[in-house]
Amino acid sequence: EYTGMSKERMMEIRRKNCNPMIMKVTSYKKPVFIHQGHMQWLWDVDGKRYLDLFAGVATVSVGHCHPKVTAAAEQQLKRLWHTTNIYVYPPLHEYCEKLASYLPDPLKVVYLTNSGSEANDLAMLMARLYTGNFDIITFRGSYHGGSPQTMGLTSNAAYKYPIANGLGCTNTMCPDVFRGPWGGSHCRDSPVQTIRECSCAQGYCMANDQYIGQLKETFATSVPSRIAAFFGEPIQGVGGAVQYPKNYLKEAYKLVRERGGVCIADEVQTGFGRTGSHFWGFQGHDVIPDMVTMAKGIGNGFPMGAVVTTPEIAASFAKGVHFNTFGGNPVACAVASSVLDTIKEDGAQQNSLNVGTYLMTELAKLRDKYEIIGDVRGKGLQIGVEMVKDKASREPLPPEAMSEIFEDIKDMGVLIGKGGVYGQTFRIQPPMCITKDDVDFFLSVLNKVVHSYMDRK
Ligand code: PMP
């Protein structure tokens, strides 16, 4: 039973002493006061239980307070909390070797950080030093961090500040086959297809050519002939589970490398088995990046991040001293190591594939039933449900309507996320331990909430 601080007192402190931005983006009209978590469940201070389908933004990978991971943390906390990495200590080495074993050659050198922004900052720096070039290309709608450097990669007005954040960063058109000008039903790698009519000839994706054409135009108009890097999330997260045509990344990587750039996969949301079919999102695109950045799910909620790169790139970075006090902290390493073991032992990746595919298939039925559900997409448990005014116009469902539906789903006991450049996409990125029963519960909630919303309008 909860005997801590009252809700009123917490809100008072939040107003007075907390980051006011948190207040703005706290999107529930009636906030949720979380006290406890276990696996896919969260309990509020009144003892009400929620099914957590957002996992603290795709972060709680194997489940809240997963007993195995908690035990690993406890054990390490009793042995050694911290030492600097000028000393050699087992958890760091055990983890680096283990993490590297999950990546294809030549991705074998691991740098540990404390967040995704830090990992991407480091990747930007390494790419620039290695190539001797400065310009970096990312997609519109992407999110790669909130530090002044990574803010330049991030392309979403909501996260931008009027500072010189975009120096050397150019955003190219996002090859979004639903909202973009070109698209169709067999463009993307998802168990469900968009209902948008496809303009591609059978077996040939015209949309991909068009979007690659936009990238070529970016090269021709906006950057010098030699570039440092291309950053891409295998499936956009904050952008709203946006997927690209099947061959896009493969062709883009080739074009980037021809211009001297390195290719960086931001796996902060898509990594660690979430996409189901593969352990890493990039594997679903049949590419091997030169650098992979990770965070969130790496520690099941424990603050941690990483960059994994090739020995060659690492060598060019070794000319200076890179030091990070907490990067590679023993407790973080013990936790992350246990997360990798737990994903394997619990069959979390396979569960993502099975449960995620079932969820998407059922969501597609609701899409066909309701005019305001425009698109259902994703892979595994990286899922987006894009809401529209109507299917013909594909105009985003306005924020007030999104909030109403979002709030009602929460009141019925399910937490999901919101994303997309216009805040028009519901995001479902739960702990990878959810079951088919949980999915059925969510589907009945969503059906009821959307149904009653349509009745009210
Ligand atoms: N990359 C991606 C794809 C993300 O979604 C995020 C966080 N939303 C980040 C990087 C930044 O991570 P962090 O908040 O840990 O700095």
UniProtKB/TrEMBL annotation:
Pfam families noted in UniProt: Aminotran_3 (PF00202)
Record carries keyword Transit peptide: yes
GO cellular component terms, A-Z: mitochondrion
Source superkingdom: Eukaryota
Record keywords, A-Z: Aminotransferase, Mitochondrion, Pyridoxal phosphate, Transferase, Transit peptide
Catalytic activity entry: 2-oxopentanoate + N(omega),N(omega)-dimethyl-L-arginine = 5-(3,3-dimethylguanidino)-2-oxopentanoate + L-2-aminopentanoate; 2-oxobutanoate + L-alanine = (2S)-2-aminobutanoate + pyruvate; N(omega),N('omega)-dimethyl-L-arginine + glyoxylate = 5-(3,3'-dimethylguanidino)-2-oxopentanoate + glycine; (2S)-2-aminobutanoate + glyoxylate = 2-oxobutanoate + glycine
Biological function: Multifunctional aminotransferase with a broad substrate specificity. Catalyzes the conversion of glyoxylate to glycine using alanine as the amino donor. Catalyzes metabolism of not L- but the D-isomer of D-beta-aminoisobutyric acid to generate 2-methyl-3-oxopropanoate and alanine. Catalyzes the transfer of the amino group from beta-alanine to pyruvate to yield L-alanine and 3-oxopropanoate. Can metabolize NG-monomethyl-L-arginine (NMMA), asymmetric NG,NG-dimethyl-L-arginine (ADMA) and symmetric NG,N'G-dimethyl-L-arginine (SDMA).
Protein name from the UniProt record: Alanine--glyoxylate aminotransferase 2, mitochondrial
Protein species of origin: Sander lucioperca (Pike-perch)
Gene (UniProt): agxt2
